[in-house]
Specification:
The chain has 279 residues and is α/β, with parallel strands linked by helices. Helices cover 41% and strands 18% of the residues. It is globular and about 50 Å long. The protein starts with 5 loop residues before the first strand and ends with a helix.
Length: 279
Amino acid sequence: MSDPNATLVIGATGTTGRRVTAGLLAEGHHVKAAGRTAAPVDGAQAVRFDWNEPATWGEALRGVDRVYLVPPVGSSEPAAVMLPFLHEARAAGVRRAVLLGASAIPAGGPAVGQVHQALPGLFDEWAVLRPSWFMQNFTGSTPHARGIREEGAISTASGAGRIGFVDARDIAAVAVRALVDEKAPDTDLILTGPQTLSHDDVAAILTESTGRSVVHRHLTFEQLRDRWAAEIPPEFATMLAAMDRAIADGAEDRTTDTVERLTGRPPGTFRAFVEREIA
């Protein structure tokens, strides 16, 4: 059972946040489930939180000593709102912060990299989770999922580059350990699945598992950038397309033992993830 203080989970109904919340509750910890609508979460205290409304921060932080940080969605400069919040969190008594970052963005890099760089100077206990690309990117209402459903295609500029796709379930399991274990990691953690796959491999697994033909459509950097720019701000579209170009150059062709080392179990495979989703 946890101490009387709560863990604030930002984005508590999101891809990792809802799994982190469930994991904390399963171990008996008190959770404040934060989101823009304060949507009810069984077993947790729902609280309204909006990165762009500082008036919502104080109540969210009341009685909290650790926080799971999910950056504002779609922001190319999250530090502008996250750093003022983190200063307020420290003043309010938060002692441990776990940030969801990205394998492609190191400390001091663009976007969430600026928050990563500042975190150790703000909290004595901290961790930055840097997962590779999510397996969940191929489900729900994501661009890849829409492309699979509507066109039978995954469109990327990643070429034959390989990625250690990781299940959000495994990311959340690491987050729980980073939040509640007696000793914080006090470092950044690269999270991957057990194998690297190209998007051609992903398309083949989806075809085999679903019985529906899925292909990998190879785009240029410019084609992908313009495709993204139809939906999101141009600077963010450019950054995302550049990540694909880095994949093509081998930047994500790696696996780590982090998930198994911190949770005691190996990360799930992409094929097992697809079969679970189908079921």
